[in-house]
Each structure stands twice: as structure tokens, then as C-alpha cells.
Amino acid sequence: PSSNARLAAGIARVPDMLAAGVPVGLGVDGTASNESGELHTELRNALLINRLGAHREAALNARQALRLGTFGGAQVL
Fold it and tell me: CB neighbours of 74 closer than 8 A, spacing ≥ 6?
């Protein structure tokens, strides 16, 4: 999410992807595109940025974000 924000690449429609059964993972790009390699920062940003593109009830919740950063990341690998 941080690299998308920094590069003005848009907001991923994660809730729609999950509803469609698309495997989704959350990770970090490294310092070249987000100045940090910290997953907890990306989890927080995923929650906050996703609220901009969705109605609050359709936005990610903390449990979903944590799952994307752990099981979701493993699933897409």
C-alpha cells in the first residue's frame, strides 16, 4: 500500500479480490519504493488506505489485514 501511494498507482480493490476468490498477499517492496521494510507499517497502511476506496463496512478489518500479511503472503508464493 505504501508503494502504491508513493507512486500514485491507485488503491487495490482487495475486498473485491477476496470476494472473487483471488489469492491476495501483503508484503513490502523495500526501501526503494516505500522507505521501509516493516510489515506492521504496511498492515496499518492497508487498513487506512483501503478505507479511502471502500465504504467503511466493505473495507478491510484488522484480522483480514493480518491474514493477508501472513497466510496470504505464503499462499501467493
Answer: 25
